[in-house]
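Sequence in, structure out.
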Amino acid sequence: MDFVSPVLDVAYRICNCVGDRADHLRRFPQNLKSLRTETEKLNNVYKDVKERVEREENLEKKKRMHVVGGWMERVEAMEKEVNELLDRCDEENQKKCFGTCCPRNCRASYKLAKMVREKMDAVAELQSEGSNFQEVAVPLPSPHVIERPLEEKPLVGLDSPFHEVWTLLQQDEQVGSIGIYGMGGVGKTTLLKKINNKFLQSSIKAFDIVIWVVVSRPTNLESVQETILDRLDIPDDRWKGRPEERKAEDIRRILITKKFVLLLDDIWEPLDLLRVGIPPLNDGNQSKIVFTTRSADVCRGMAARKSIKVECLEEKEALSLFQAKVGVDTLNSHPDIPKLAEMVAKECKGLPLALIVIARAMASAKTPEEWERNLQKLRMHPKDVAGTENDLFSVLAFSYDSLPDEATRSCFLYCSLFPEDYQIPSEHLIQLWIGEGFLDEYDNIQEARNQGGEIIQMLKCACLLEVGTTPFVRGEYLKMHDVIRDMALWLACEKGKKKNKFVVKDGVGLISAQEVENWKDAQRISLWNKTSIKELREHLRFPNTETVIGRMMAFKFPSGFFTNMFPSGFFTNRSVIRVLDLSNNETLKLLPAEIGNLATLQYLNLSNTNIICLPIELKNLKKLRFLILDWMFSLGPIPNQMVSSLSSLQFFSMKSLSSCLQMDEIILLEELDQLEHINDVSITLRNILSIQRLFESHKLRRSTTSIHLEGCRGVSQVQLLSPSCIKELILVRCDELEEVKIIQFEKQVVPSKFPNPQCCFNHLLSVEIHICNKLLNLNWLIHASKLQFLHIERCEIIEKVTEDERSEGSEIESGLSVFSRLIYLTLIGLPKLESIYGRALPFPSLRGIFVFGCPRLKKLPFDSSICMSKKLKKIIGQQEWWDGLEWEDQAVMHNLTPIFSTS
């Protein structure tokens, strides 16, 4: 029986094998059908996955995952294999025995049946894998710089600041942070985009990554962090919902390993970069930060190593930008339009945003008449031009909104009361602000002045005010860009809703009484330059008017004759006028007695008028703080007790009255001395007794800031008190004046030649000397350490302005700065002048020199340090004088020659 078991085992195995193969062959048709079905399902899954991949690659700029890409390749290979297998199966089915279902070649059919079964399992596995993909693509690694969209046309007017910034980025390792500032709409963001896109050039690979962040307002530090984290490809799940400190750590950990450029656009307040996570810039990583802002203060707050101001376009550049935006078709639609386009472009004063907005509005204007109408609108009512409110004024108004308080905003809007391109004296502007009550929190006028100066600085830093250009004139002058002024008037009139809230008319000629009636609700009225109005009707009142400024204007009776009296309609018992400025009206000779009704008046300026007498009713102005009566050559005696009745008066100015004026100066000084609150006096005096009375009064000595001595006969010596509060000293036609002496409080007289260093004039800013023919020198000016303006004219025997104190063995400390604050020096008609100073001085603040009629002046007190100064802009004189100058250093001459001119 031993042989039976092996035989049975073999037989069993043969039966199993035959049965298995028979089962494959039996299920072959069904499996073949199932393979077709499952392959079709797999193909549908493949299509779905492929569509997801392509969508995320094309639209979301992602990259397919490697596992997905491998699966798709295996599916494509499987599809090919299955199709080949199906083709073979179809061929085999054609080879069955005639009239039966049995295959001719069982072995071959079995192999195919087995392969079909295996492919079914493989197809099912691929199908399951494809159906379970949660993600098919991942974000691409960020490029080192992402392009920012810019206009296709060439950028206008940005070449100079661009090259300056780019040079600093590429070559200057000492400058890590760069601030770009300028007024709204001037092109700062465009410049920053141009810098960003420059890094796209393949040849520029100096930095690992360039990061762009729009900061805007209000500053959101978390948003800034998230923009940077996203740019650094840190997955959201690692920082979403985490505290600020953890986000900062993540940013710092990555950036400290990279050489980066961080571009921050539109910063409104200093941003704490350490809190954001930006590592400190140093020579080791050589990374850079560039930011844009409207405020120079932000540049300082961000500790920018270099601040670059973007200026408005020059006229030619502005016209080029305007023409490009208007389009050739419109410009060529009529021969007159190019000239009109030039006139419209000029109204935008080089501000790119204004040029673009106005150009868009004009692009469809194809007739000269349309251009002329819009030009008139732009000049008279700019808000009515399409796009100016929403696209221009609203953008610029962000600078106004960012001002720190209501007082500063009121001061800014007030500047719009001056005409276009007007040079505003900053000292005069602050006086008006104080008169309006904007600075009422300060009881002391000097404290209010200081605050006014800070506000001016703030407005300049915010690019809402600009420095004016008035060379050789004392004091700072300001100006307002025309478009900023238009925006300010729009805001002052409640965004155009109350168009007559601020009424400003400049050189418009005669205004009808009917139009004036529309001003009855005006808050401020400002009339300038030959603007005249008809005599107001008796019943017309201005109950809400707080400000009346009428400069160089006139008034007409209904009959057509001009009147020399200001209309009384403004002066009623119910008037709330706080500021009345009628200066520079030469036709104005009388004031109505009703002016005494202005119980709220705080500021009155009658300078440069031909008023012949002041009404006694002025004494009723108990709240008046400023009374300015300068250059009133027709004015008669001031009524007694009028000045002393002005119980709130703080500022009094009466400069250069007519020399024939019969006025008792001592009485006037005594009345001023009686005023409790007086603390700023500017006055003209003509005799020695008046000068003595002034300095005998402690109050007047402390309060007097400007002294104008004119025609002081018999005065051979002027004694000035030291220390002194005088800011301005003018000496005119003091024919017998030989010297100036200084008196200290203890009454010790100190000669003018090199006075004791304790004798100082720390407040003295301006000195003018005219026709003082016995005056030899001004040595006492050595101790006017803050002197800014010096004007000497027609003094016949002056040989030296001041001497070198060291050459005379003086005890003055050598470290004392001489003329270190001097801004302008004017020397006219000084036939014997040989020297300004005995040795060379640095003159770090000097901007201009005017020399005329000084034939013996052969040397200027300059050395090579003047060549380093960027402030000296102008030297004016006669060509013969310039050619005859002697120079110890020829390099100084070569450097100064380009700024010399004869006019």
